[in-house]
Amino acid sequence: MSRTLKLCLFIIFIITGVFALYSHAQQSQTQPEGKEKVKFVKAPNSPAPPGVKFAITDPTEGAVVEGPDVTVKFTVENWKLFKDEKTQTGQHIHFILDNEPYIAQYSTDPMVFKNVAPGPHVVRAFPSRPWHECVKEDTAFSMVQFYVKEKSGTLPIDPGKEMLVYSRPKGEYSIASPPPGQPVEGILIDFFAPNVKIGETGFEARATLDNSRRIKIETWQPYYIQGLEEGSHTLKLELLKDGKPVEGNFNTTERTITIKP
Fold it and tell me: What is the DSSP letter of 118?
């Protein structure tokens, strides 16, 4: 091979390498900045008074309710329910019918679900703080399964099996007006975990943001998403064992949330 040909090939090699580095740099600079800002932050569980207890007293397990409205009575101990009229927040109970987004109850009055369809249903509930972080104590959770109108069909959940009860996030959020009292900036990820110890014997939760970003949750603690841009986002929560989804109704849940200015 002549010296001239070797020199030409060397020059082509150098030019190709420089072009590749330039292209890579350009791609890095044009990555969406919003995605780079998004991060998940683990936070400690907020303090709670000792001995918080919550129990659904009516309907009873397996009962047939006339419907279509379902009235749920309950008792709560060592957890004061209230709503601040100025902020419209306060300590409350998260009531979840089947796997619908929770409804907050700020008083000890019975919770009423309107126009419930005939058939089998489950209500799961637990106390929550003003910024919607749940009280993570076994005694702070209660559930009941029942039928509306007629006793037909299969009850949704095996009460002795591992569960993940989706709580937050849900609905709309304002960047300028975070929930009063929230200890960490961002959008709260929170859930209740009956009959399972997250982080033990292979159990963990997994959060997936916008079908792309994923984190493993190996301790039962709240997480916060920081840096989300305005618009719609999805958040999926799953209960896993040894990296695989745990069978059972409602152990995988996805919600769409909206971030506003």
Answer: S
Number of neighbours of residue 36 by Cβ within 10 angstroms: 9
Q: What b/e string do you get for 209-242 counting C-beta neighbours within 10 Å, with b at 16 or more? A: beeeeebebeebbbbbbebbeeeebebbbbbbee
Give dist(CA 170, CA 174) in Å, integer. Answer: 12
pLDDT tens, position by position, 163-173 = 999 999 999 99
DSSP state string for 60-109: PTT-EE--SSEEEEEEEES------TTTS--SEEEEEETTSPPEEE-SSS
- The model's pLDDT over 177-218, given as tens digits with 9 standing for 90+, comes to 889 999 999 999 999 999 999 999 999 999 999 999 999 999
CB 261 within 8 A of CB 174: yes
Model's pTM, two decimal places? Answer: 0.85
User: Which residues, 6 or more positions from 254, have their beta carbon under 8 angstroms from its beta carbon?
Assistant: 234, 235, 236, 237
Domain ranges of the chain: 39-260
Q: Residue 253, exposed/middle/buried by CB under 10 A (0-12, 13-18, 19+)?
A: middle
CATH number assigned to the domain covering 39-260 = 2.60.40.10
